[in-house]
Structures are given as C-alpha cells and as structure tokens.
Amino acid sequence: MDEIFFLKGLMLGFVIAAPTGPIGILCARRTLTHGRRAGFASGMGAATADMIYGFIAASGLAFISHLLIAYHFWLRLAGGALLCILGARTFTSKTADACAKRTGRMYAGMFTSTFFLTLTNPMTIFSFGAVFTGFGLVGTRGSILSAGTLVFGVFFGSAIWWSFLIGVVTLLKQRFTERHVIWVNRIAGMVIAGSGVLALFTLIW
C-alpha cells in the first residue's frame, strides 16, 4: 500500500514540477554557466519547496493554506522582487561568471533562492491542492508512514524532473559558444525579470 502512495507522489511531483517557468529557466541557465552542480542545487531547492507544499496538501492543513492566502500580497511582493533582481543580474552576467570560484556557499545560495521563489508562489499550493483533490489524496487518512511515503514521492518526482532538465542542458552545453551564452543570459534575464514585473503588476491590477 505504501508503495502505491510513493508512486502516486512520484507522478504528482513530476507533473507539477514539469511546466517550465522562470525557475526552470533559472536552473537551466545556471547549469549552462556554472555547471551541473549549480543546476542540481537550484533544482533541489525547488523540489524541497514542492515537498513542503505536498505535505500541506496531503495533510489537509487548511490553516496553513489559509495563512498563505492571507499573506498572498507579501508573498508575491517578495517573490516578484527577487525575480526582478535575479533577472537583472542574469541579464548583465558575462561568460566569465562560469569561471567564478565554486564554493559550498554559492551552491547554498542557489538552493535557497529557488526554494524561496517556489515557496513564495501561492499558485504552487493551489496546484497541489487541485491535483491532490483530483486523486483523492487531500487529508490522507492512514498511517504516518503512508503520508510520509507520499510526500517523499513528491520530492523524488520533482527531483527526477529537475535532474532530467539539468541533464539535457548539460548535453547541449558543449554546443554553446561564448557568444551564445551571452545571448542566453540576456534572454533568460528578460524572461525572469519579466515574470517578476508581471507578479508585481498583478498586485495592483
């Protein structure tokens, strides 16, 4: 029975993580310019946030969902502002960044940024709530082990998607010249910053 919960969580985590938005673009760009470990650290930040939202949805913790909705404005403000900052930094980045000294602190910062961006997106909890409801998994009844198995399935499903994305970018990386990378930085920066501006604009619309 627990295996079924894990497989369901695995599938749900993959499906919810798969749509490529600004976070996916950010992870792909970091993989291209900083290497596979940087992309992996970024992807795991998003997967960890997905796991937390999966826990909230699976446990039927309505009070946390209501709390997130209540602070919807501030969450979108923080997430939108961070996207704008990351977008601007990405746009102005040079290919020399790829040669920057890679440290544990840098990877931790990449993990934290994608974790925070995913966590401050209220649409994530709505997505989990809708999908979990469709599968009859909200407020899962059963043992703590079953609920935990489901949540870890969500994490690994999300992690599989990010690993797949990072693997594809890594395979294509050798085809990119310095000029290509500069254009990738510019396009990625505009998309990421544009997503941030859109998030901020919706606060007053």
- What percent of the residues sit in helical stretches (DSSP H or I)? over 70%
Most strands sheet: none
Structural class: mainly alpha
Please report the total strand number as a whole number. 0
Low-confidence stretches: none
> Beta-sheet strand percentage?
under 5%
Mind telling me the C-alpha Rg? 18 Å
The domain count comes to: 1
Average of the residue pLDDT scores: 78
| Total number of helices | 9
Descriptive keywords:
single chain; 205 residues; mainly alpha; 9 helices; 82% helix
Q: Can you describe this structure?
A:
The chain has 205 residues and is mainly alpha-helical. It has one domain. The protein contains nine helices and no strands. The chain has helices spanning 2-17, 22-34, 36-59, 62-70, 72-91, 104-119, 122-134, 144-173, 178-204. Helix 5 crosses helix 6. The longest helix is centred in the C-terminal third of the chain and has 30 residues, at 144-173. It is globular. The model has no long low-confidence stretch (mean pLDDT 78).
Give a short synopsis of this structure.
The protein has nine helices and no strands.
Give the arrangement of secondary structure elements.
Layout lengths: L1 H16 L4 H13 L1 H24 L2 H9 L1 H20 L12 H16 L2 H13 L9 H30 L4 H27 L1
Helix pairs in contact: 1-3, 1-8, 2-3, 2-8, 2-9, 3-6, 3-7, 3-8, 5-6, 5-9
